[in-house]
Design a protein that fits this description.
By secondary structure, the protein is mainly alpha-helical. It is 78% helix and 0% strand.
């Protein structure tokens, strides 16, 4: 049984900012490990390519969490679901901090990725609460918070792991999520579920949504391609900067991510353009920018200046394309936003796990140019698909 969406409580500017902060803080937990792979490899005496499994498993956990938990946002009162998932995330982060072996760290990383998807429960809530003429803009604000969280996560974890330990990073993250849970418990409104069908039927409806909506399939696939390229870059950049060519530590990865975080200003603009009906063109331009960034990285191997500029371009590109594609997806059926978001984000995050693994393999076998070739090809394929949709 599906019901019409209930009237939305008012989305105040302060609540919108809190939702953006909470989503960014939650999703950051999936990316702390990327800047710390060098330290983790040293502590467990493992090669870089093997330690990269931490990043891949975290992304796999993201895909699992979005697939199994996010659809419940249409079925269970959203405030309660968000707070329960945050509690589980705190426990997983503590597990990662105290993991005595690499195997247990892998398990904890899978759990962190699974429950960090609370961010994908927050996004549909924000869109639900937003006025009809500002949904794209609000989506841009919250997505900007998410992508800023992703990038600042690498900055914070790189610096803290150099100064203290990678274990300290996970403990601090647990404390931050506990604080976030307290703030959300005080401010989040209760939202009536839009459906009361059982969990099995809820999951089965995902298949029907994919089969019914061509726009959903195309937007999702094009975003998968560019996100795989994005994750190939970030899963291998720490290994590249630790190599003899650069000889830099985790702080360098963090500072590079800080440069990319400045690209978050593109998110609200992309949201406004999507509100005006230009989502297909916005997505295509974002993916072409990503392909250009990889091309520059490939032809200017070893250049710090090019690396900084291309990182900024790449982060702007991925933010732009995600907001444009997501705005298309959310407009398909207001009563099924959590499930539509589940389909979109599960596929995207699964592609992130593939991209993380592909980036590590490309770096191990073909060097940095192999990573750039994979990234450019994936981004161009996404641009072609977005252009056909447009």
């Amino acid at each position: 049984m599906t019901t019409s969406p209930s009237p939305s409580p008012a989305l105040t500017p302060s609540l919108a900012r809190l939702l953006a902060f909470a989503a960014g803080a939650a999703v950051a937990n999936s990316y702390y490990n990327q800047a710390m792979l060098g330290h983790i490899a040293g502590d467990f005496a493992l090669p870089g390519a093997e330690v990269a499994a931490i990043a891949a498993l975290t992304q796999l956990g993201n895909a699992t969490g979005v697939l199994l938990l996010a659809p419940l946002g249409d079925r269970i009162e959203r405030r309660r679901l968000i707070l329960l998932t945050l509690g589980a995330l705190v426990v997983a982060l503590v597990m990662a901090a105290i993991a005595p072996s690499f195997g247990l760290l892998l398990l904890a990383s899978l759990c962190v990725g699974t429950f960090a998807t609370v961010a994908q429960q927050i996004v549909p809530l924000a869109v639900h609460l937003a006025p009809a003429d500002r949904k794209g803009s609000v989506l841009g604000t919250v997505t900007g918070g998410i992508l800023t969280g992703i990038l600042l996560a690498r900055t914070a974890s790189g610096i803290i792991s150099d100064l203290a330990s990678w274990r300290v990073v996970f403990l601090l993250a647990a404390g931050l999520m506990l604080l976030t849970g307290v703030l959300l418990a005080r401010r989040l409104p209760k939202v009536t579920p839009t459906t009361y069908i059982g969990y099995g039927a809820l999951m089965a409806s995902l298949i029907r949504l994919v089969a019914a909506h061509r726009a959903l399939r195309r937007a999702t696939l094009s975003q998968c391609l560019v996100f795989a390229a994005f994750m190939a870059f970030w899963s291998s950049i720490a290994l590249e900067l630790h190599s003899e060519r650069f000889g830099l530590g985790s702080t360098a990865v963090g500072l590079l991510a800080l440069v990319g975080a400045s690209g978050a200003v593109a998110a609200p603009l992309a949201g406004r353009l999507a509100d005006r009906g230009g989502a297909g063109r916005v997505a295509m331009l974002g993916m072409l920018l990503a392909a250009l960034a990889f091309a520059l990285l490939g032809v200017s191997e070893g250049s710090i200046v090019t690396l900084v500029a291309a990182t900024l371009m790449l982060d702007i590109a991925v933010q732009t394309s995600q907001i444009a594609n997501q705005s298309v997806v959310y407009a398909i059926d207001p009563a099924a936003r959590s499930r539509l978001n589940t389909i979109f984000m599960t596929a995207m995050l699964a592609s992130g796990a593939i991209g993380s693994s592909a980036g590590a393999l490309a770096w191990s076998h073909f060097g940095w140019r192999g990573v750039c070739a994979f990234g450019a090809a994936a981004a161009l394929a996404g641009a072609v698909l977005a252009a056909r949709r447009g």
